[in-house]
Amino acid sequence: METFKALIGRVAEGEKLPVEDARTAFDIMMSGDATPSQMGAFLMALRVRGETVEEITGGALAMRAKADKIPAPADAIDTCGTGGDAKGTWNVSTATAFVLAAHDIPVAKHGNRALSSKTGTADVLTALGVNIDCPFSLIQKALKEAGIGFLMAPRHHGAMRHVGPTRVELGTRTIFNLLGPLSNPAGAKRQLMGVFARKWVEPLAHVQMKLGAEKVWVVHGSDGMDELTTTGPSTVAELADGRVSVFEVNPADAGLPVARPEDLKGGGPEENARALQAVLNGAKNAFRDIVVLNAAAGLIVAGKAGSLKEGAEMAAASLDGGSAAARLAQLVKISNEAA
Length: 339
Hints:
Catalyzes the transfer of the phosphoribosyl group of 5-phosphorylribose-1-pyrophosphate (PRPP) to anthranilate to yield N-(5'-phosphoribosyl)-anthranilate (PRA). One of its GO terms (biological process) is L-tryptophan biosynthetic process. Belongs to the anthranilate phosphoribosyltransferase family. Its cofactor is Mg(2+). Keywords: Amino-acid biosynthesis, Aromatic amino acid biosynthesis, Glycosyltransferase, Magnesium, Metal-binding, Transferase, Tryptophan biosynthesis. This protein has 339 residues and is of the alpha/beta class. The protein folds into two domains: 63 residues, Transferase, Pyrimidine Nucleoside Phosphorylase, Chain C (Transferase, Pyrimidine Nucleoside Phosphorylase, Chain A, domain 3, Up-down Bundle), CATH 1.20.970.10; 260 residues, Pyrimidine Nucleoside Phosphorylase, Chain A, domain 2 (3-Layer(aba) Sandwich). It is 46% helix and 11% strand. The protein has 15 helices and seven strands. The strands form two sheets. A five-stranded mixed beta sheet has the order 1-4-5-6-7, with helices on both faces. It has a two-stranded parallel ribbon with strand order 2-3. The longest helix has 16 residues. 53% of the residues are buried.
């Protein structure tokens, strides 16, 4: 196997690594066989030159191979995004997950605590009463009975402990910010994936294709959100039928009004939990609208809706009828059971 020093030298010269060589590099790092300075040099060489589809694919394959996996139905979906949009918005993808579960779509929700925001998925779920540290057997049970299970990233990606300190010391985005959402421990082949920058929308759809995904929407809001936004247009790269197409969507496509950015601001875990519970209980506000828009997209990805308008109507019905709230209640109950 090529030494890590040799791989550093290649990227330092501006060479773009093929998938297998990139996978080797990430395997070395996540096996604890590289020093912090070597990892920092490698990650920054990639960042400065610009990471490629092949290198991201290789990194994702290495992460997936080392993950502690959870079995999931073949039609499982994930709503995990990159985070890191610095918008301070509330937990849109988490609320979206409960709406999708209400339509009998198994949701393997991958996520973490807040890293660049006030409140991550794990933080808001904890505030809602979900035991995010429950045994894996209960995650499987929740997936089967509640239609949604929460996969706490550090519990499934123990090998990341080898690179964590280096990432913290670097203090800037690296390729690992892109790899998390590509490394679902349940192997979900369908995904609504938000990204923090417009430039990554189309490349990450191609990465998903190389990784064997079936249908994916990679999205970025024109306001910078790593979600479909309701403040204006959003860019989408759709992977479907083995092809990637790029287009733009607007709130009006789902029959929704345009929001002001300040209407979507979130807060701490308790505040966001109250807002999320209110939306699931049928509250009519800007939070609800952005959940309806993203859930409509998720329903398209899951093959349950043919358009954003149809998906939005389905999403609204699950919020008003209480079925989305019921899925949260089930997840809370199951996650707190004795194993």
